[in-house]
Amino acid sequence: MSGAAFLLPSIERTDWKTFLLLQLVLDTIPDPIFVKDRDHRLIACNQGFCRLVGQPYEVLIGASDPDFMPREQAEVFWHFDNVVFHSGQPNENEELATSSDGVTRTIWTRKFPLRNVGGEVVGLCGIVTDITMMKERLQRAERLEAENREQRVVIEAQTTMLDRMSMPVLQVGRGVLLMPLVGEISDRRAERALQTLLGAIHERGAEIVILDVTGVPTFDTSVAAHLARAVQAAELLGCQCVLVGIGPEVARTLVELQVDFGRITTRSILEDGISFAMKQRVRRKGLPTGRA
């Protein structure tokens, strides 16, 4: 059977009364289906459409959207009807539909032009999919994602604050800074510590910085590499580094790891490191004792 056999010279309500089999087929489809003429009157629909709008078949046939839907929604339906009528092209879009029980659903409507044997658009056929639950799930997912983003921002801010609190840069004398390192030194914390340290050296014009690793529980190759990088970066800014807090266990670990700290001044305790830094600065400036 060719496609032309389905074309009608016009659409009249009486024409569809003879299509009992077609109506039966339409009613077996759960998705709402409707047919309109150019005046936006319903010529045919299935039971799925009746359930969507909450009206019986007899009331809907021959009626138009404003007769059973809120005016603002009917205007939207007519607007997209006219898009199909004027363009002759299919159209699909998201809409809101409020049934007679007052429940508003979100629907996805696909509309297709219906042509006569002369190729003129004499109406349209629409297929509706109720996407209310899908829309609600999507909105819930979006809300959860937004909440997760906010939580991640808060956690990141808290982590940054804790990092700064656990790795502050203190001024212990003119031109002398102290950065005590506390806790595990991950790549992320090491990068932030380096940024903080270099910023402080630049802003305060530091000449010597003391890195205290007493509070670092694990001293491995990664930690050693981060420290070496910090020392090298500080030296590029003209700042000498003093490493304190290296006990017997850490020293043995560094030897076993074959880490070269030959160019770095080390002291076992913080007091010795501060004393060395103060004397070193006096020596550099050629200042008499007591003017450092």
Describe this structure in words.
- By secondary structure, the protein is of the alpha/beta class.
- It is 46% helix and 23% strand.
- The protein has ten helices and ten strands.
- Helix 7 (187-204) runs parallel beside helix 8.
- The radius of gyration is 39 Å and the shape is rod-shaped.
- The model is unreliable at 1-8 (pLDDT under 50).
Radius of gyration, in angstroms, nearest whole number: 39 Å
From N to C, what is the helix and strand string?
A: HHEEHHHEEEHEEHEHEHEH
Largest sheet: 5 strands, antiparallel
Oligomeric state of the chains present here: single chain
- Total helical segments: 10
Helices and strands, with pairings:
Layout lengths: L12 H4 L3 H9 L4 E5 L4 E4 L1 H7 L3 H4 L10 H17 L3 E8 L5 E12 L5 E10 L1 H35 L3 E4 L2 E7 L4 H18 L3 E8 L5 H16 L3 E5 L3 H9 L8 E3 L2 H16 L7
Helix pairs in contact: 7-8
Keywords:
five-stranded antiparallel β-sheet, 10 strands, rod-shaped, five-stranded mixed β-sheet, alpha/beta, 10 helices, 292 residues, single chain
Gist of the model:
The chain is α/β, with parallel strands linked by helices. It is 46% helix and 23% strand.
